[in-house]
């Protein structure tokens, strides 16, 4: 009988004030992050924010210029990748084309001179976990992209790492397969109890799988929280813009910091968040914006109301999306569940409105 590849206790990862420069540019900037044993954590952010560099330093492919990284309590600085208790799954699977699936998965263990019988058992286990056992004798070229990605996963799992690092592992897959694999990966992770550190620039992917999400900006973490918190209470306009979609209104902060007076709407929130008199940003998600035909056409300036002209209607499946032009410089997106979506046509005069509870207020931010 064989032990499960997840038998080893899940590891912790502590990134302690780590900095990494490339020439004059700072890829990672005094970043600190504590990852719990058995946690599924995602590093999320736009291209160039330092996600991959962070992952590569945990893996040992890069060394920090400053700071410390500890895996399960021990510093790994100076420890080569193959001696760290972590394994990486990359987007480019880099399978050996001339070897079978089973040989690809066995390769690392053979290099380590693991006994033959043990290699066999562990390869079977890893292929089972990745649901690839029936393809054991195929060559990578005889597999779909999703199947190749499963082999890459098996190749990492066969080492029974206590921490698995995943660098955009689903990036090359089409959307439907991607969503299937997201569910599978999440299930696999909870079954194995292995700590997962997952790098992605896809917010949907991060939201659907992670226990916690670290949203990165310019080599630092802007917010670290679970999906609900990041979505409902983003720490900054940058996070609000990156997770989900937002309609932003920029203007003068009024009413004691509870509202933003922009050209096309007075946007009022429920709490005083901003210093009065300065410039602020108010944000409302498209799913919180109601839309209807503007029959009254009275231009009264009620708060949290905007009038405009409908310039686009699109079916998104479960929802209908409406694009409204408020003025030359501003449009607004509203989204309604399809069963209750109003019948409107391009060119219609419309009025949009939202509740103060749905409004987020932020200081002005270049990145939003
Ligand atoms: P992506 O999603 O595009 O992979 P990322 O968030 O993973 O982006 P990194 O790859 O970590 O970002 O890169 C962070 C910064 O460091 C970028 O500005 C990048 O150009 C720079 N960088 C990364 N690797 C190197 C390198 N080997 N040499 C020089 N600069 C590098």
Automatic annotation (TrEMBL):
It catalyses: ATP + H2O + polyamine-[polyamine-binding protein]Side 1 = ADP + phosphate + polyamineSide 2 + [polyamine-binding protein]Side 1. Its EC number is 7.6.2.11. InterPro entries: AAA+_ATPase, ABC_SmlMolc_Importer, ABC_transporter-like_ATP-bd, ABC_transporter-like_CS, Mo/tungstate-bd_C_term_dom, P-loop_NTPase, PotA-like, Transp-assoc_OB_typ2. It comes from the Bacteria. GO terms for molecular function: ABC-type polyamine transporter activity; ATP binding; ATP hydrolysis activity. The keyword Cell membrane applies. The keyword Cytoplasm does not apply. Keywords: ATP-binding, Cell membrane, Membrane, Nucleotide-binding, Translocase, Transport. Residues 13-243 form the ABC transporter domain. It holds the Pfam family ABC_tran. Part of the ABC transporter complex PotABCD involved in spermidine/putrescine import. Responsible for energy coupling to the transport system. Belongs to the ABC transporter superfamily. Spermidine/putrescine importer (TC 3.A.1.11.1) family. This is Spermidine/putrescine import ATP-binding protein PotA. It comes from Agromyces fucosus.
